[in-house]
């Protein structure tokens, strides 16, 4: 059992950091309790130890701390989260404390929120299809169980509606396995938090969800713990309770801003755009907590959502996220301005594992060929539209005009399905064929003839 040591030697407080002098045997990441002069207790974590000085990061901020009368207790262990299957259906704050007025959680065990890195040899390959009910994801950028697939959004784009839709609709097909959604919200407004909670309550999806909500007015430092707490819950439900867990984390940009704040308070040398040089490493410790384990039925699948500052995909946060994750779903401001929901920009979006999760026995045998054909036809149609905008409609051939018609209908009917439509993969594939029937048969070069005979709707049907 760890020995709890108490000190009254607070030397300095800078922003969210506190420096304690004369400490002995204190270790990195240890949980700290700070008792203020009025008896209020705040929590923190040891960020670094140099000889007899410890730098403590305070989760609840440092306002009102009196240096002389403050007691600091080092617990000898890192921050732990009490976990239980009863967490499903409940709402917690960013530190894992219930805020829905329900009873306290009686824990089955207490887990270190930093988790354990998964041994690569113990990883199982992600290859099972998850149906989100959204055509542009299921068909063109397929999500697979155990994958990490981020959504790149921009300020003002409807990523919260998309997140809620995925949380509501996601299921694993042809499976009796239990499915749960862990939702981590970081630095969001009260209005957004209400939106998520009401949406999940009204649709009944709350019954299989665990929500962790860190609001914009909560301390920034708490934001750093929120995704770790959510992932610890997900790992417990997946690997110990055999559930398939989808983790949705929004907004990763707020998490990275909190990291930058702590880094600046520590007077570290800043990296790109002022973010710490270890941003890549830090993000990977979160994203790599997705996956499946050999011999265990459960899985953790991640959809991190981040809003790109100024819609800049070269910004450090989307840039580094793209290196670590297996693809990205990109939202388009142009489609949003046209009123299309969800405004998923199909062409630059990518799921690197889509081939593993689709095809006969998983979705349908025509999945991959129709996906490739839709991509090709949409790209061709976009080019034809640009040509028409520059040279006028008369510059287009008859086939080009059909491509333009295809592209318009593809955006209006296929992408623009709304935030409440839940399409099965069969409905999506049939809609894809319906749109491809606009084009002359000889243009369908990416689909074999026998498959075209079997699936392409006959004219006049």
UniProtKB/TrEMBL annotation:
Q: What GO molecular functions are on record for this protein?
A: ATP binding; proton-transporting ATP synthase activity, rotational mechanism
Q: Give all residue intervals belonging to the ATPase F1/V1/A1 complex alpha/beta subunit N-terminal domain.
A: 11-76
InterPro entries of this UniProt entry?
ATP-synt_VA_C, ATPase_a/bsu_AS, ATPase_F1/V1/A1_a/bsu_N, ATPase_F1/V1/A1_a/bsu_nucl-bd, P-loop_NTPase, V-ATPase_su_B/beta
Q: Which residues form the ATPase F1/V1/A1 complex alpha/beta subunit nucleotide-binding domain?
A: 133-351
Task: List each copy of the ATP synthase A/B type C-terminal domain by range.
Answer: 357-455
Q: Does the keyword Transport apply?
A: yes
Output the GO biological process annotations, alphabetical, semicolon-separated: proton motive force-driven plasma membrane ATP synthesis
Q: Gene3D superfamilies given for it?
A: 3.40.50.12240
Alphabetized, the UniProt keywords read:
ATP synthesis, Hydrogen ion transport, Ion transport, Transport
| Presence of the UniProt keyword Heme in the record | no
Cited function: Produces ATP from ADP in the presence of a proton gradient across the membrane. The V-type beta chain is a regulatory subunit.
Q: Which family does it belong to?
A: Belongs to the ATPase alpha/beta chains family.
Record's PANTHER family?
A: V-TYPE PROTON ATPASE SUBUNIT B
For this entry, the protein name equals V-type ATP synthase beta chain
Name the source organism: Globicatella sulfidifaciens
């Amino acid at each position: 059992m760890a020995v709890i040591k108490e000190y009254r030697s607070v030397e300095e407080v800078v922003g969210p950091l506190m420096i304690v002098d004369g400490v002995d045997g204190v270790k990195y990441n240890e949980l700290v309790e700070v008792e203020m002069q009025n008896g209020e207790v705040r929590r923190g974590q040891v960020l670094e130890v140099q000889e007899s000085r410890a730098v403590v990061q305070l989760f609840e901020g440092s306002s009102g701390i009196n240096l002389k009368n403050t007691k600091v207790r080092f617990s000898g262990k890192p921050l732990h989260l009490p976990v239980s299957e009863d967490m499903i259906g409940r709402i917690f704050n960013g530190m894992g404390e219930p805020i829905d007025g329900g009873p306290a959680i009686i824990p089955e065990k207490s887990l270190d929120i930093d988790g354990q890195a998964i041994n690569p040899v113990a990883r199982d390959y992600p290859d099972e299809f998850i149906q989100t009910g959204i055509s542009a994801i299921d068909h063109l950028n397929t999500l697979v169980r155990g994958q990490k697939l981020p959504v790149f959004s921009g300020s003002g784009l409807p990523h919260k509606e998309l997140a809620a839709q995925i949380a509501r609709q996601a299921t694993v097909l042809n499976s009796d396995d239990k499915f749960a959604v862990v939702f981590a919200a970081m630095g969001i407004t009260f209005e957004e938090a209400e939106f998520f909670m009401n949406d999940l309550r009204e649709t009944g999806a709350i019954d299989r969800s665990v929500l962790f909500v860190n609001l914009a007015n909560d301390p920034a430092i708490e934001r750093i713990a929120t995704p770790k707490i959510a992932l610890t819950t997900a790992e417990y439900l997946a690997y110990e309770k055999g559930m398939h867990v989808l983790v949705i984390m929004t907004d990763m940009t707020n998490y990275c801003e909190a990291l930058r704040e702590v880094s600046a308070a520590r007077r570290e040398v800043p990296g790109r755009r002022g973010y710490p040089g270890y941003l890549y490493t830090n993000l990977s410790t979160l994203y790599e907590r997705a996956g499946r384990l050999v011999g265990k039925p459960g899985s953790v699948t991640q959809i991190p959502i981040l809003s790109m500052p100024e819609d800049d995909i070269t910004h450090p946060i989307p840039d580094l996220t793209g290196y670590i994750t297996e693809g990205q779903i990109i939202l388009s401001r142009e489609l949003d301005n046209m009123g299309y929901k969800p405004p998923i920009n199909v062409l630059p979006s990518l799921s690197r594992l889509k081939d593993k999760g689709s095809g006969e026995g998983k979705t349908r045998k025509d999945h991959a060929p129709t996906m490739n054909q839709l991509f090709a036809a949409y790209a061709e149609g976009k080019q034809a539209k640009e040509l028409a905008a520059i040279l006028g409609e008369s510059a287009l051939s008859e086939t080009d005009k059909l491509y333009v018609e295809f592209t318009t209908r593809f955006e209006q009917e296929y992408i623009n399905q709304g935030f409440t439509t839940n399409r099965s993969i069969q409905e999506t594939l049939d809609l894809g064929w319906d749109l491809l029937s606009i084009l002359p048969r000889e243009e369908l070069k990416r689909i074999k003839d026998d498959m075209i005979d079997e699936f392409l709707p006959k004219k006049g049907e």
